[in-house]
Write a structure and sequence with these properties.
Helix content is about 25%, strand content about 30%. The protein is built from six helices and seven strands.
């Protein structure tokens, strides 16, 4: 509970996993502490690439490739101060929270075993394993489908049983666009909503004037 009764409720960022077919909610991964910085980069998809002819100079062939990087902190110290009400933290430290993030990098063992059985039974085609659809949530205006591209964990402190009790986690995410998923895919629809939210916010920006750039006009 906040020490200040009138303070606003803190909204946390995180990742939501949903079934790509049914849209059923599978898991919510909320960050224990919101990171201080969030790095985003956009790589444009110009028509024809860098060597495009003049007729293609102003054309884009698709949505920019956006990547997101952030660093999250996990800490069980506060929970260990009250062991009676935080038995899992006493027994496992922050292992469960780390395992939830790491599980995004692996296909489910049940699906792996099922595919192995199909392969050994002589199935003609065993499709690559589809993972849940991951959504990066950073406020109501930024809900975007992503794929985990990088996960780095630095464990910094341990309990007597060598369970990690403090760690820093670096996450690399690639935004999945309609070019990756298609317009009819659930994630593709969410991506379009994400772009429309950008366009709406851009419309709220105060328009600039040429005089602020020291110009009176533009000559053709």
């Amino acid at each position: 509970m906040s020490a200040f009764p009138g303070s606003p409720r803190l909204v946390k960022g995180g990742i939501v996993l949903v079934d790509p077919g049914s849209g059923a909610l599978l898991k919510v991964i909320s960050l224990q502490y919101n990171p201080d910085t969030l790095t985003r980069s956009l790589q444009l998809k110009a028509a024809g690439g860098d060597n495009a002819d003049r007729s293609q100079a102003l054309r884009l062939k698709g949505a920019a490739v956006e990547t997101i990087k952030l660093e999250a902190t996990l800490n069980a110290t506060d929970q260990l101060e009250f062991p009676d009400s935080n038995k899992d933290a006493v027994t496992y430290g922050i292992h469960p929270q780390l395992a939830v993030l790491e599980a995004m990098a692996y296909p489910a063992t049940s699906v792996m075993l099922a595919n192995d059985r199909m392969a050994r039974s002589g199935s003609l085609e065993v499709l690559p394993i589809e993972t849940p659809l991951a959504l990066f949530v950073w406020s109501k205006s930024r809900i975007v489908p992503v794929r985990l591209t990088e996960l780095s964990i630095t464990e910094e402190a341990f309990d007597p049983q060598l369970n990690p009790i403090r760690a820093k986690v670096s996450l690399g995410l690639r935004v999945l666009s309609v070019d990756d998923l298609g317009f009819g895919h659930r994630g593709g629809v969410l991506f379009l909503n994400y772009l429309q939210a950008k366009e709406s916010l851009a419309g709220k920006a105060k328009p600039g004037v040429l005089s602020s750039l020291g110009l009176e006009g533009l000559s053709a």
